[in-house]
Amino acid sequence: MKPTIYSVAEEAGVSISTVSKVINQTGHISERTRQKVIEVMAQLNYHPSVVASALTGKPTKTIGLLVPDISNPFFADLARSIEDRSHERGFHVVMCNTDNDAEKEKKYLSLLIRQRIDGLIVASAFRNANLLKNMLKQDIPISVIASEIPHISVNTVTVDDYKGSYLATDYLLSLHHKKIAIITENAKSNHARLDAFREVMQENGIIVPPQHVITTEASIQKGYESAKQIFSMKEKVTAIFACNDLLAIGVMQAAKELKIDVPQDLSVIGFDNTVLSTTITPMLTTVAQPTKEMAVNVVDLLVREMKYPAMHKEHLLLEPKLIVRKSTAPLRREATASTNN
Amino acid sequence: MKPTIYSVAEEAGVSISTVSKVINQTGHISERTRQKVIEVMAQLNYHPSVVASALTGKPTKTIGLLVPDISNPFFADLARSIEDRSHERGFHVVMCNTDNDAEKEKKYLSLLIRQRIDGLIVASAFRNANLLKNMLKQDIPISVIASEIPHISVNTVTVDDYKGSYLATDYLLSLHHKKIAIITENAKSNHARLDAFREVMQENGIIVPPQHVITTEASIQKGYESAKQIFSMKEKVTAIFACNDLLAIGVMQAAKELKIDVPQDLSVIGFDNTVLSTTITPMLTTVAQPTKEMAVNVVDLLVREMKYPAMHKEHLLLEPKLIVRKSTAPLRREATASTNN
DNA sequence: TTGAAAGCGCTAACAA
DNA sequence: TTGTTAGCGCTTTCAA
Questions:
Q1: What pTM was computed for the model?
Q2: Residue extents of the structural domains in chain B
């Protein structure tokens, strides 16, 4: 049998409330009994049950985390940092991979409610904001990271996607590229990136033909396919802005296969600055998100809201940073992204 | 207020035990009341509390997962699959990154015990097997994946490391390489890989000088540093067997920096078959682990043990597979891994 | 087919 | 400073 507060009390010759007090460091107990109780707890290898304690209304010390897919290195990094910070703050995290699938979102949310999580961190786009509203109604605080969910009032931590995209686009323009395609994911964060791209292009008097805007899912494979699609068009392109590193990697693989030299014949720029951007050849120019900082902030905001539910919501916008590496180069006059034969 | 079983009972005009029965599909209740109760639950947006249910002795439906580091794509893949399978089986998972650090292992274990997890999956080397024994004493079943922990009797799912290493080494030998260095991590799984390497080499009459065996931690950086160290030795090497992909990537980066051509001047072989092996140039020859299959099996074994605690322990050994790509080539007579100047 | 009630391990108010 | 006790939301036995 697992030791309970009763076993400890009995063994130590005190009452359970005394034991409870030394566990929680509440009330006043003499140093002598305190020591005795601590000793007995260690000896019995007693670990107070969060389950029982939670039933009395105390927190479960659990944070739910919804990510699209932990195999995406960007989310792996994010999850890692969120976990570290959560542990530092005394919480542990239950992670769920939604694949941006509405069914899974629903299922996991219900699961998490049943588990009585103290708070929820959402790192994935959310199709059904109503489900989230239900959580809010159940007094479960929510913080959103690297994403945005319309119509609900929650704490939010994002990188300035608009600015990041501006940085990327502007850099490409400074390299004299004019025919630039963009591959985006259908997620809120990517909308800002697309908007910024369009505006900067327009400001520079460049019209982006609709076929140069491809919307797809975040994966190397999709990046590869999108690139193939772009390369097959009549209207050639000299640069591609992929809205995340996974897509960018796919683009580079497609280019390689078609013997399109990056960066000589095609400049590629990514977003996220994951490991992949430094292991690919040539190394990827990309926009870095301060994942660590973002993670610390979401956790802290969430924990703050658990303590002070009434507090106003915060919307943190962190600075992206353009990391110039080797996948981008100035436009060569003759360059076109066509196959070599 | 969150709805409770009482609110539902009252609203539906029945007793709480009736509600409980319809939730758990136990006992006999008329279709009519059943429908009524279900209706009320939906209307009240009621989600039964796992916390309360667990207090009565039922499972918490929580599995603890200890991984070294989720930023390592191998563990990210593994974690993803473990989670998917756990969800399928009705459990959710609490993940903890140990960094193979004894302090963290201890801290997280205590955390998980307090949370009353139903079972634990260990994917990390474990310095302190006694802590795990304590869990076993508390009747918390443990399954180990991609690792092995001496002196404790638990279910185990691993790839056949010995065979994987044999495959890799043998392949290198078939390419006529004789001067092969190996970079390993100080973890149980890697010991088998090192042993196999040594034996195969010996069988072929090749003596591996001690300086050609480097033990370090699993990271790109460490792989890079180890490679630098190897390249600086008097005794040149024509191939490097890195015991995981991260290390192999580091090796390739170091080689590139020193203008050592892979695979012409140096063959590199990895282990794990992560994304990185297909995004690096040249693509990495590596040994694939069937992560998905492994994940499904650990979860299933763990769940089985929860149900039938007395059952004998199983030790699953899955087949590795050599994936030949572009980082390995036959030995050129003149080749030595030296810098080009 | 339904309900009453004890108990799971703990917290917190209150009493001693 | 310590102990008694009611309750947290549920399950389960037993009775009706």
A1: 0.94
A2: 3-47, 60-158+289-318, 159-286
Which chain B residues contact residue A114 at CB under 8 A?
A: 47-50
What CATH architecture does domain B159-286 belong to?
A: 3-Layer(aba) Sandwich (3.40)
Give the CA distances from residue A244 to residues A10, A149, B23, in Å, rounded to whole numbers and listed in that order: 59, 19, 44
Contacts of B76 in chain A (CB under 8 A): 70-71, 73, 76
Does B134 reach chain A within 8 Å, measured CB to CB? Answer: yes
How far from the centroid of its chain's Cα atoms is residue B49's Cα? Answer: 31
Chain B residue with minimum CA distance to A64:
B94
What CATH code would you report for B3-47?
1.10.260.40
Q: Which of B132, B138, B131, B186 has its CA nearest to residue B155? A: B132
Cβ of B308 near strand D (distance < 7 A): no
Beta-sheet strand order (sheet of A239-242): A213-216, A180-185, A239-242, A267-272, A285-288, A321-323
For residue B54, the chain A residues in CB contact (below 8 A) are: 51
The domain A60-158+289-318 belongs to what CATH superfamily?
Answer: Response regulator (3.40.50.2300)
Please report, in tens digits, the pLDDT of each residue of chain A (341 residues total): 789 999 999 999 999 999 999 999 998 999 999 999 999 999 999 999 999 999 999 999 999 999 999 999 999 999 999 999 999 999 999 999 999 899 999 999 999 999 999 999 999 888 888 899 989 988 999 999 998 888 889 999 999 999 999 999 999 999 999 999 999 998 888 999 999 999 999 999 999 999 999 999 999 999 999 999 999 999 899 999 999 999 999 999 999 999 999 999 999 999 999 999 999 999 999 999 999 999 999 999 999 999 998 789 999 999 999 999 999 999 986 544 444 43
User: In angstroms, what separates the C-alpha of A209 from chain B's closest C-alpha?
Assistant: 30
CA angle B186, B191, B192 (to 5 degrees): 155
User: Mind telling me how many Å the CA of A73 is from chain B's nearest CA?
Assistant: 7
Give, as ranges, the nucleotides of chain C with any atom within 7 Å of a protein CB: 1-5, 7-14
Domains B60-158+289-318 and B159-286 share a fold: yes
Candidate from A47, A76, A115 with C-beta closest to B71: A76
**Distance in Å, residue B27 CA to nucleotide D14 C1':** 13
Burial category of A190 from C-beta neighbours within 10 Å (exposed 0-12, middle 13-18, buried 19 and up): buried
